[in-house]
Amino acid sequence: MAEKKKTEAEAEVEAPEGEAAAKPKKKGKLLIMLIALLLLGGGGGAAWWFLKGNKPHDPKAVAQKKEEPEKPPIFIRIDTFTVNLKKVDAEEHFLQVEMQFKVVDPKADEAVKLRMPEIRNALLLLLSSKTQEELATVEGKQKLSSDIVTQSNQIIRAKEPAKDGVVGVYFTSFVIQ
Known about the structure:
3 strands, 62% helix
């Protein structure tokens, strides 16, 4: 037994150069691989977190979103219009139309009601400048709708029409004779 211990001790004395040199190299490689794995995992996790949309939020932007819940639309009924259409041939044509304005801001509702005589005058002039052919198509009616929105917003002096002005015009009756 003493010989076995001696031979193992002798082997250890003789082998430190080969095995001892190999052990630090293996530990160094293992350490580098672990660091690289941690860096890649951390980078991948951060990229996933940002791509998912969990970015830090600006407190002011979050407060603005909470302050501005979506407002229900307000519809304003406009009395019936009956106008002579612009003559193209010898025959006279009439337009009878009922419409409603859509607004989202109560202030715009008040502004439209306050300036209703001006709006009705502008609509009367606009409608009577159209011909039967212009209003017979869907595209013609859509263009008329956008023209009415534009003129109404100019009259009520809407700064941001999508928020504080007339958003849309809806025809509830449209008769050409």
